[in-house]
Each structure stands twice: as C-alpha cells, then as structure tokens.
Write a sequence for this structure.
C-alpha cells in the first residue's frame, strides 16, 4: 500500500522530451548545421567551377584574337613594305639578294616563327585546339613558299621554348 500511496501522493511527471530525446535533438541540430555547411561548400565549388569555365572561355577567345592580330600585322607589313614583297619574289626566282633583302627575309621569317610559336604554345596550354595548327600549310611555307625559312629556323631555334622546338623539328622541319 505504501507504493500505491506514494504513487498517488506524487504523480509521475513526464517532461515533453526525455533526456535521450533532448540528446538526439542536439545531435540532430549539429548534424543539420554540418549538412548545411557541406551544402554551402558544394555550392561554392560549383560556383567556382562555373567561374573557371567562363575564365577559360575568355582566355580561349583572347588567344584567338591574339593570333588574328599577329596575322594582321604580318599582312600589313607585307602591304606596307614593298621591300618584303620584292625580296620574297627575288628569292623565289632564285635571283641574287642584297644584304638588305636577306635581312628583310630573315626578319619576316622570324616574325612568322614567332606567330607559329604563339599558336603551338597556346595549344600546349589548352587555350586552342590542335586544329588551330595548320601543319600542312606550315610545312609548305617552311620548305617551299618562304625563302630562307629553314636557315632562319636553324639560326634562331635556340631562342624558342623547348616544346616549340620539339614540335617544329618533329612536325614541320623534318617532313
């Protein structure tokens, strides 16, 4: 009877949440915060990937524009400097060239090599696709259409990056 009297005298109190439930809610809150933080990190990574893609596209566009600018410079030099055209024609006819004409041809060939270097290095850096290199056209220019190109290459290739020299020797000069 005492037990009944004690129970009857003091009703049992149940809190809305037991200790176990409170502990589970604390863990749940901590886990929720962790999940939200992880979602934030993932969102940041996705945003960063998007920004990198946009940046790469801008770099590719810039690389193409630079190549076009170099081509325009080469064409403008030919149009604005009749000495280049004259020296090229004389060399193709295998007529004797003056020292000035030889210099003009060498400078023109060096400018062309620099343009090729820019293209090859941009392909190596992933800014341009391999299709940007017109290897067959370069071989034709190197071996036939640009007088003195092989001599200019041999005398100046030590000034170029190793990757470009390797590409030229493998794909252009030795074909």
């Amino acid at each position: 009877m005492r037990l009944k009297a004690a129970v009857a005298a003091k009703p049992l109190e149940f809190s809305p949440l037991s200790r176990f439930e409170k502990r589970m809610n604390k863990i749940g809150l901590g886990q929720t915060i962790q999940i939200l933080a992880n979602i934030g990190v993932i969102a940041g990574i996705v945003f960063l990937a998007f920004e990198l893609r946009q940046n790469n596209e801008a770099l590719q566009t810039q690389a193409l524009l630079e190549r076009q600018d170099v081509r325009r410079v080469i064409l403008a030099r030919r149009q604005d400097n009749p000495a280049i055209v004259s020296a090229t024609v004389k060399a193709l006819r295998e007529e004797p060239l003056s020292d000035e004409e030889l210099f003009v041809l060498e400078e023109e060939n060096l400018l062309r090599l620099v343009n090729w270097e820019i293209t090859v290095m941009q392909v190596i850096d992933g800014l341009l696709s391999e299709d940007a290199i017109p290897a067959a056209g370069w071989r034709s220019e190197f071996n036939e259409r640009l007088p003195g190109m092989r001599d200019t290459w041999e005398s100046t290739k030590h000034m170029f990056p190793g990757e470009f020299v390797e590409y030229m020797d493998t794909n252009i000069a030795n074909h």
Observations:
- The CA atoms of residues 110 and 156 lie 8 Å apart.
- The chain has one domain: 36-173.
- The chain has a mean pLDDT of 82.
